[in-house]
């Protein structure tokens, strides 16, 4: 949120009132509350211009150009005239304003439609139809079936005789299942409730009736805006929160600001450019002093003889500062934003490959500023359930407390009845009768699986009312239970309980939850050994387990607990209400009897193992953060290719204290692994608590743990809470600031880590849309991650890198031409170019082509990128945008500017340039020739950089080039200093000869270098090979294993000659075998060239794996002779022979 937004929120009339609020139903309110009109727009007609300008000029680059424009307009010292920089700045600012307005108008139109919807207001005398925006706190609103709820309200009555209604909350939490709400069935005088907050699942309040009695309010009495009435003819409710104080609006705060890694790199380059510019300005100003000293007696100097050298230096410095002011590219940021916006809208969101037809959900993006970060991810933090798995549960096995196990539920006997009775009662599932069939609506796939499993064994849930639940058993006996209390599930409690009274008046407590929590609450304090072993067996099979418990409560015991603890906690409006309620539930959930254990199967999503394998080959480390048991998490790890049977698991979950934990880390770190073996870390929430308990002070322990994790193939964290997930992501972010992190999950418990990571991805699954709503990108399947990162991420990283470099290159190329000219103009700071044309160079003439290049260019086809995931490592290595590349582009821009000035200067200095009127060359002619050369060189340089040409590319490249000649021709027809200048200059043959000659010579170096770089093996890259395949319309022949695939977990190494080389080495592996391209071997045969990347997805690679496993790896600087290279040669040649056979 911007500073202006913070100031607006700080104003007294916009502050959220603290404490409880009292609402008088159908009466005038004593306190003033906000209206019900909502606005999700960022701007309004009044604040759009000032707020947008404020935001734009918080950028350092824009402030820099505003300062330059002010000097140009008011100092009179600018050699380029008053308007060159201001016009360019105005164009850039207007483009940014148009973009921001376009995005905001859509939100405004949506808001207007919502605010003008109608509803019915009920008074003591009549009913009237009003618009949503006219609703005020205290109104009684009547809603009918399928109508959306316009404001947060307490449900007073319902058409249902039981006082219940059903609501759909998909707009709130994405859950399509129906939820039951209960009416208070009273005519309240006033309602005292908590102040506005963001809690969707918690609420506390009290209804004050006319007779002085009170009714405690729960979240089941609260109807939230964004929900829809279902299966109920009508309801009436009293409005308590309106507009921006409604809970859906309280939760619609902006996502935390995230800036890309390339932006921070670009900012450093801009600082370097400013240093270069300042150095040039200083040298030029000193040269001006020297020139003035040597020409002090010249009569034609305009400056007076009495000017001090300090004033001359300052005036000269400012003049040159104006002259070279565009060293920092003015249009860079707005071009970046527009390119990223189009990358998102045209490529990411329109990619049919990331569309899931079963759920009809395409890929959606909520952020447009992170497209290049997708190509630099090094660490992925993934939830398990619903992210790696389908989150479609089936109850397949149970184990009773007596040790009996039933893997086939059809063989269950009467011993299982009490457990199935518990499953049919302990839940929040709502039964719904459709076409004479009972269908279940559940907020959790686990709950649905348990209830469905119980119903298949004859214990069917038939009906659920506000405090009544009806079931039948396999004898078709309908049983009615009175619900006395429902102790709901939370991620902190990891359990839920229900207290019911049966038809005989007996009170029962049924509880289900995680074994780690309920183990401490079971009466014997331990499991039956057979049950415990079966629990571990279930977890070892990758099944989700829950422990089911029971307790019989006496009437007196229940009443004491209810009166002394539960009722005071539920009716409390204190700030510690949550703690009071937690304490009350803990007191009754003790001394439980174990009924048994359930095992639920959750299958993997499609192509999860293949996706993780490809990501591993791309050099991305996987972290699995799950709340499941360790055994379950490890089994899923094996199934997902996160672990393999050659991986040594380093278990840190059994440590009793922090010293023991650090000792284990040190011991595992010191263990040497055999060749080809890898390590994996498994740690649980308790161990992480020891580690993060003193996060700020014990940095050394955290660093040791992180270093150990980085040496391992993968990390699995089990039994972790949402806060611990965020802490793990923060650990990597804080201590590895150059690494890009990505978090992916599907549930509310994943929101914290999704918002903490550099890039957050939400899976639209069975647990609602909390995760996708909080994410930067959302889709329906984990497998889409490979295309999001490897294809679009890599493309966008390269596009944005080239866009940044090219914007800097063209700015320097034009401005340094002025520097060369200063040698011949007496260091006077005279401009060589016409100011108006100069202002259009950065936007119209060269800005549009590079913008579309940043949207459309592709260096390698998507098929070959997926088949060769090693290409993705370029992003993590900053391959396309680093100091070396920046220096190279800067030097190239100086060379091109040198040629674009001195070739026209030499051509025109001979006096042969005579126009049609017999006039010789003047400064305008030389300036136009140099200016045209710069535009031509820059445009054709971009053509050389382009790998994927489309009609749009051709249109923008050539139309932008044509626009210069059209604008220059039209502008020279306007009377003024430039009158007919372009017509005269372009009428001479030497003008066109100079432009062609300069463009050819300048780009010849680039063309030769690119040819050498692509075709000389010392420099040739893997993507060059793949580009050759793409140019022929072919996909690389096939994939087989590389002995260096494991090295991608650390810097890639390759053998060359007599030494090991780093990943940047591009020398021959062993000439008798083949070559190495960035750690990837490929071989040549007489018939064809076979590329060999580090992936093994074909079954016929087993032989090659056996050969590779026997190779002796080396260390940096180790001669080949010491690495048994002859043995390696023999083995690879043996594989070649077998392959040919």
From TrEMBL:
<keyword id="KW-0460">Magnesium</keyword>
<dbReference type="Pfam" id="PF16212">
    <property type="entry name" value="PhoLip_ATPase_C"/>
</dbReference>
<keyword id="KW-1133">Transmembrane helix</keyword>
<dbReference type="InterPro" id="IPR023298">
    <property type="entry name" value="ATPase_P-typ_TM_dom_sf"/>
</dbReference>
<feature type="domain" description="P-type ATPase A">
    <location>
        <begin position="118"/>
        <end position="193"/>
    </location>
</feature>
<feature type="binding site">
    <location>
        <position position="489"/>
    </location>
    <ligand>
        <name>ATP</name>
    </ligand>
</feature>
<dbReference type="InterPro" id="IPR023214">
    <property type="entry name" value="HAD_sf"/>
</dbReference>
<feature type="binding site">
    <location>
        <position position="749"/>
    </location>
    <ligand>
        <name>ATP</name>
    </ligand>
</feature>
<feature type="binding site">
    <location>
        <position position="512"/>
    </location>
    <ligand>
        <name>ATP</name>
    </ligand>
</feature>
<dbReference type="InterPro" id="IPR032630">
    <property type="entry name" value="P_typ_ATPase_c"/>
</dbReference>
<feature type="binding site">
    <location>
        <position position="385"/>
    </location>
    <ligand>
        <name>Mg(2+)</name>
    </ligand>
</feature>
<dbReference type="GO" id="GO:0140326">
    <property type="term" value="F:ATPase-coupled intramembrane lipid transporter activity"/>
</dbReference>
<keyword id="KW-1278">Translocase</keyword>
<feature type="transmembrane region" description="Helical">
    <location>
        <begin position="803"/>
        <end position="824"/>
    </location>
</feature>
<feature type="binding site">
    <location>
        <position position="725"/>
    </location>
    <ligand>
        <name>ATP</name>
    </ligand>
</feature>
<dbReference type="InterPro" id="IPR023299">
    <property type="entry name" value="ATPase_P-typ_cyto_dom_N"/>
</dbReference>
<feature type="domain" description="P-type ATPase C-terminal">
    <location>
        <begin position="773"/>
        <end position="1017"/>
    </location>
</feature>
<comment type="similarity">
    <text>Belongs to the cation transport ATPase (P-type) (TC 3.A.3) family. Type IV subfamily.</text>
</comment>
<feature type="binding site">
    <location>
        <position position="383"/>
    </location>
    <ligand>
        <name>Mg(2+)</name>
    </ligand>
</feature>
<feature type="transmembrane region" description="Helical">
    <location>
        <begin position="956"/>
        <end position="978"/>
    </location>
</feature>
<dbReference type="InterPro" id="IPR008250">
    <property type="entry name" value="ATPase_P-typ_transduc_dom_A_sf"/>
</dbReference>
<feature type="transmembrane region" description="Helical">
    <location>
        <begin position="990"/>
        <end position="1008"/>
    </location>
</feature>
<keyword id="KW-0547">Nucleotide-binding</keyword>
<dbReference type="GO" id="GO:0005524">
    <property type="term" value="F:ATP binding"/>
</dbReference>
<feature type="binding site">
    <location>
        <position position="628"/>
    </location>
    <ligand>
        <name>ATP</name>
    </ligand>
</feature>
<feature type="transmembrane region" description="Helical">
    <location>
        <begin position="926"/>
        <end position="944"/>
    </location>
</feature>
<dbReference type="InterPro" id="IPR001757">
    <property type="entry name" value="P_typ_ATPase"/>
</dbReference>
<keyword id="KW-0812">Transmembrane</keyword>
<dbReference type="GO" id="GO:0016887">
    <property type="term" value="F:ATP hydrolysis activity"/>
</dbReference>
<dbReference type="InterPro" id="IPR032631">
    <property type="entry name" value="P-type_ATPase_N"/>
</dbReference>
<protein>
    <recommendedName>
        <fullName>Phospholipid-transporting ATPase</fullName>
        <ecNumber>7.6.2.1</ecNumber>
    </recommendedName>
</protein>
<feature type="binding site">
    <location>
        <position position="626"/>
    </location>
    <ligand>
        <name>ATP</name>
    </ligand>
</feature>
<feature type="binding site">
    <location>
        <position position="447"/>
    </location>
    <ligand>
        <name>ATP</name>
    </ligand>
</feature>
<feature type="binding site">
    <location>
        <position position="750"/>
    </location>
    <ligand>
        <name>Mg(2+)</name>
    </ligand>
</feature>
<dbReference type="GO" id="GO:0000287">
    <property type="term" value="F:magnesium ion binding"/>
</dbReference>
<feature type="binding site">
    <location>
        <position position="383"/>
    </location>
    <ligand>
        <name>ATP</name>
    </ligand>
</feature>
<dbReference type="GO" id="GO:0005886">
    <property type="term" value="C:plasma membrane"/>
</dbReference>
<feature type="transmembrane region" description="Helical">
    <location>
        <begin position="836"/>
        <end position="856"/>
    </location>
</feature>
<dbReference type="GO" id="GO:0045332">
    <property type="term" value="P:phospholipid translocation"/>
</dbReference>
<feature type="binding site">
    <location>
        <position position="385"/>
    </location>
    <ligand>
        <name>ATP</name>
    </ligand>
</feature>
<dbReference type="Pfam" id="PF00122">
    <property type="entry name" value="E1-E2_ATPase"/>
</dbReference>
<dbReference type="InterPro" id="IPR018303">
    <property type="entry name" value="ATPase_P-typ_P_site"/>
</dbReference>
């Amino acid at each position: 949120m911007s500073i202006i937004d913070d100031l607006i929120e700080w104003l007294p009339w916009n502050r959220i009132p603290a404490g409880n609020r009292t609402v008088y139903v159908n009466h005038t309110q004593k306190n003033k509350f906000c209206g019900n009109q909502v606005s999700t727009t960022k701007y309004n007609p009044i604040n759009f211009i000032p707020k947008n300008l404020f935001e734009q000029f918080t950028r350092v680059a824009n402030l820099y150009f505003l300062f330059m424009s002010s000097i140009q307009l008011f100092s009179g010292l600018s050699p380029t005239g008053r308007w060159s920089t201001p016009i360019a700045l105005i164009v850039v600012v207007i483009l940014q304003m148009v973009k921001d307005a376009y995005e905001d108008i859509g939100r405004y139109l949506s808001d207007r439609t919502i605010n003008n919807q109608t509803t019915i207001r009920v008074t003591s005398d009549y009913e009237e139809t009003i618009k949503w925006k006219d609703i005020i706190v205290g109104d009684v609103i009547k809603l009918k079936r399928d109508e959306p709820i316009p404001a947060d309200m307490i449900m007073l009555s319902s058409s249902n005789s039981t006082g219940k209604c059903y609501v759909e909350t998909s707009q709130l939490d994405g859950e399509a299942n129906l939820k039951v709400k209960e009416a208070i069935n009273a005519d309240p005088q006033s309602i005292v409730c908590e102040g506005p907050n963001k809690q969707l699942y918690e609420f506390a309040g009290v209804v004050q009736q006319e007779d002085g009695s009170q009714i405690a309010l729960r979240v089941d009495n609260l109807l939230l805006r964004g929900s829809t009435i279902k299966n109920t003819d009508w309801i009436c409710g009293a409005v308590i929160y309106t507009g921006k104080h409604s809970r859906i609006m309280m939760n619609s705060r902006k996502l935390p600001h995230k800036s890309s890694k390339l932006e921070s790199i670009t900012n450093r380059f801009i600082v370097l450019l400013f240093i270069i510019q300042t150095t040039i300005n200083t040298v030029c100003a000193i040269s001006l002093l020297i020139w003035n000293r040597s020409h002090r007696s010249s009569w034609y100097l305009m400056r007076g003889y009495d000017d001090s050298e300090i004033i001359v230096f300052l005036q000269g410095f400012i003049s040159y500062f104006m002259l070279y002011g565009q060293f920092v590219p003015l249009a860079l940021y707005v071009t970046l934003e527009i390119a990223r916006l189009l990358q998102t809208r045209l490529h990411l969101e329109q990619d049919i490959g990331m569309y899931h037809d079963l759920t009809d959900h395409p890929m959606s993006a909520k952020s447009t500023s992170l497209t290049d970060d997708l190509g630099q991810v090094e660490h992925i933090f993934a939830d398990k359930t619903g992210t790696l798995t389908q989150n479609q549960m089936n109850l397949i096995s149970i184990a009773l407390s007596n040790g009996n196990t039933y893997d086939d539920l059809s063989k269950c006997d009467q011993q299982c009845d009490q457990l199935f009775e518990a499953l049919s009662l302990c839940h929040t599932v709502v039964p719904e009768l459709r076409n004479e069939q009972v269908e279940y609506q559940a907020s959790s796939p686990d709950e649905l699986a348990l209830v469905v499993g119980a119903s298949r064994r004859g214990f069917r849930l038939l009906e659920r009312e506000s405090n009544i639940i009806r079931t039948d058993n396999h004898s078709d006996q309908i049983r009615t239970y009175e619900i006395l209390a429902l102790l709901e599930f939370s991620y902190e409690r990891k359990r839920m309980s229900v207290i019911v009274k049966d038809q005989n008046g007996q009170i029962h407590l049924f509880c289900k939850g995680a074994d780690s929590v309920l183990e401490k609450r079971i009466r014997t304090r331990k499991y039956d050994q057979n049950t415990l072993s079966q629990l571990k067996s279930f977890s070892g099979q990758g099944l989700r387990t829950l422990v089911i418990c029971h307790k019989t409560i006496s009437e007196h015991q229940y009443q004491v607990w209810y009166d002394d603890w539960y009722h005071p906690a539920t009716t409390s409006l204190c700030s510690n209400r949550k703690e009071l309620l937690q304490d009350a539930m803990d007191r009754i959930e003790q001394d439980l009897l174990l009924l048994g254990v359930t095992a639920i199967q959750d299958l993997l999503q499609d192509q999860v193992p293949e996706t993780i394998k490809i990501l591993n080959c791309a050099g991305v480390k996987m972290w699995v953060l799950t709340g499941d048991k360790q055994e379950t998490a490890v089994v899923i790890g094996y199934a997902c290719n996160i672990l393999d049977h050659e991986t040594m698991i380093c278990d840190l979950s059994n440590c009793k204290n922090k010293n023991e934990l650090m000792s284990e880390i040190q011991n595992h770190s010191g263990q040497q692994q055999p060749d080809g073996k890898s390590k994996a870390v498994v740690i649980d929430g308790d161990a992480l608590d020891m580690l993060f308990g003193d996060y700020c002070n014990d940095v050394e322990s955290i660093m040791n743990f992180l270093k150990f994790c980085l040496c391992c193939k993968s990390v699995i964290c089990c039994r972790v809470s949402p806060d611990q997930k965020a802490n793990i992501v923060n650990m990597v972010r804080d201590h590895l600031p150059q690494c890009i992190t990505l978090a992916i999950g599907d549930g509310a418990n994943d929101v914290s880590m999704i918002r903490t990571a550099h890039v957050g991805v939400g899976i639209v699954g069975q647990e609602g849309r909390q995760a996708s709503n909080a994410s930067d990108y959302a889709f329906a399947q984990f497998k889409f991650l490979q295309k999001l990162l490897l294809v679009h991420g890599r493309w966008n990283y390269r596009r944005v890198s080239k866009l940044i470099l090219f914007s800097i290159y063209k700015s320097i190329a034009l401005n340094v031409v002025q520097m060369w000219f200063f040698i011949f103009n007496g260091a006077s700071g005279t401009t060589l170019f016409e100011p108006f044309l100069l202002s259009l160079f950065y936007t119209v003439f060269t800005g549009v082509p590079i913008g579309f290049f940043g949207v459309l260019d592709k260096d390698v086809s998507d098929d070959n990128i997926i088949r060769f995931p090693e290409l993705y490592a370029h992003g993590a290595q900053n391959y396309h945008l680093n100091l070396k590349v920046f220096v190279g582009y800067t030097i190239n821009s100086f060379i091109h500017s040198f040629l674009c000035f001195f070739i026209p200067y030499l051509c025109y200095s001979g006096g042969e340039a005579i126009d049609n009127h017999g006039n010789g060359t003047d400064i305008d002619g030389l300036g136009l020739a140099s200016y045209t050369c710069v535009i031509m060189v820059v445009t054709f340089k971009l053509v050389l950089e382009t790998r994927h040409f489309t009609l749009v590319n051709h249109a923008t490249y050539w139309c932008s080039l044509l626009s210069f000649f059209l604008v220059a021709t039209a502008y020279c027809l306007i009377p003024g200093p430039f009158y007919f200048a372009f017509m005269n200059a372009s009428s001479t043959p030497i003008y066109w000869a100079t432009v062609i000659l300069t463009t050819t010579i300048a780009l010849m170096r680039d063309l030769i270098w690119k040819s050498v770089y692509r075709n000389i093996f010392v420099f040739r890259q893997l993507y060059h090979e793949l580009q050759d395949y793409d140019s022929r319309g072919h996909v690389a022949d096939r994939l087989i294993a590389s002995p260096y695939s494991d090295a991608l977990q650390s810097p890639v190494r390759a053998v060359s000659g007599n030494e090991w080389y780093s990943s940047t080495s591009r020398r021959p592996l062993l000439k008798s075998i083949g070559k190495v391209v960035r750690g990837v071997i490929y071989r040549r045969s007489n018939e064809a060239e076979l590329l060999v990347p580090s992936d093994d997805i074909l079954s016929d690679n087993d032989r090659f794996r056996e050969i590779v496993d026997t190779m002796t790896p080396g260390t940096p600087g180790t001669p080949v002779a010491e690495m048994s290279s002859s043995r390696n040669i023999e083995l690879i040649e043996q594989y070649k022979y077998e392959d040919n056979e």
